[in-house]
DNA sequence: AGAGTCGTATAAGTAATTTATATAAGCAAG
DNA sequence: CTTGCTTATATAAATTACTTATACGACTCT
């Protein structure tokens, strides 16, 4: 951790920190028996609202047939619903059901709880520093989503 | 994004921001054809140094036989090496080869490049805010790793 | 030395994903 | 309006990755 001066933001340092968080987040209990991809799809749908299969293919880094089958499994388990896209009769819109949303919400809450607990061990200055950076981080994250 | 006051760190906001980054990070090109789990193992080994299979089982959320097989694949592809643990003749130590390290490094560099590019679109104040929060975030991430 | 545990491996079955291909709906031009 | 190209999803077959169950050698303790 060695930014050249206090004005500078070292992208390497930021990447390293994010990597650590990612590692820890991904390995959360996830009591439910779902694969990483499954959870990712649920999470994407919960965050973005109804999507076409094609859109999911793009965001999830798996092939289109894999999405079709994954959604079929999720539907079988009552976690998502499919309905025809009124705008294009070839397309299907997938959306989370309340049961699916509940899974996402539980996982999210686990993470929030964990972060809240950890933040209590930080100094007030540290908490303040992170709090002050959140709007900028949020904007950055949003930008990431846009480009590509 | 609504912290109650500037002193407060809202864990929900932090979790939300991290989620966004995670989503974007995970879906990086990853040109190479490796599963998420495979990349995660490589990354863990690169970051932590040689580890036992058992240790990987704990960090990767998969069963022990799955780790054995995964490591066998990685070894076949020349990305990791196994060697006996001098301390315990039952155990095996797994470590990344230069080829494995290169994959990790490339992915990391992609992320750094992307973050660097994005940070140029931020205001100096935003960059400063993030830079100032990095040490605290790093400490928090390190703590996450420890507790369970 | 025997009983119990630990670290890894193997086997067999199942789940998830891939490639290749099909079908049906939209779309553009003539 | 119909022929040909493209888009959105589905299906089939093969492959890859993972799981449960079990085995086996190495440590540990007494």
Describe this structure in words.
Two copies of one chain form a homodimer. With 148 residues, the first copy, chain A, is mostly helical. Chain A is 64% helix and 8% strand. Chain A has helices spanning 11-26, 36-48, 53-60, 64-76, 98-119, 124-146; strands at 51-52, 80-84, 92-96. Chain A has a three-stranded antiparallel sheet with strand order 1-3-2. In chain A, strand 2 (80-84) and strand 3 form a beta hairpin. The longest helix of chain A is centred in the last third of the chain and has 23 residues, at 124-146. The first copy, chain A, is globular and about 55 Å long. At the A-B interface, helix 1, helix 2, helix 5 and helix 6 of A face helix 1, helix 2, helix 5 and helix 6 of B. Chain B binds a DNA duplex (30 and 30 nucleotides) through helix 4.
Outline the secondary-structure elements.
Two copies of one chain form a homodimer.
Chain A lengths: L10 H16 L9 H13 L2 E2 H8 L3 H13 L3 E5 L7 E5 L1 H22 L4 H23 L2
Antiparallel strand pairs in A: 1-3, 2-3
Helix pairs in contact in A: 2-5, 3-4
The structure holds a DNA duplex (30 and 30 nucleotides).
Sum up the structure in keywords:
DNA-binding, 3 strands, 3-stranded antiparallel sheet, 148 residues, homodimer, mainly alpha
Beta-strand segment tally of chain A: 3
Major β-sheet of chain A, in short?
3 strands, antiparallel
Integer-rounded radius of gyration of chain A = 19 Å
Unreliable stretches of chain A (pLDDT < 50, length at least 5) are none
**Estimated structural class of chain A:** mainly alpha
Please list the strands of the largest sheet of chain A in the order they lie side by side.
Answer: 1-3-2
Average predicted confidence as pLDDT of chain A:
90
| Range of helix content of chain A | 55-70%
- Greatest interface and its residue counts? A-B, 68 and 69 residues
| Oligomeric state | homodimer
The total of helices of chain A stands at 6
Order of helices and strands of chain A: HHEHHEEHH
């Amino acid at each position: 951790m060695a930014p050249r001066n206090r004005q500078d933001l070292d992208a390497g340092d930021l990447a390293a920190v994010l990597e650590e968080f990612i590692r820890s987040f991904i390995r959360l209990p996830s009591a439910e028996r779902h694969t990483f991809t499954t959870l990712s799809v649920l999470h994407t749908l919960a965050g973005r609202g109804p999507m076409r299969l094609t859109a999911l293919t793009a965001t999830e880094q798996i092939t289109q047939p894999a999405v079709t089958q994954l959604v079929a499994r999720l539907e079988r388990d009552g976690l998502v619903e499919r309905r025809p896209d009124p705008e294009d009769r070839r397309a299907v819109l997938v959306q989370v059901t309340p049961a699916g949303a509940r899974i996402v919400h539980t996982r999210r809450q686990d993470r929030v709880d964990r972060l809240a607990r950890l933040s209590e061990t930080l100094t007030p200055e540290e908490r303040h520093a992170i709090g002050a950076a959140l709007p900028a981080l949020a904007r950055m994250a949003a930008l990431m989503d846009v480009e590509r």
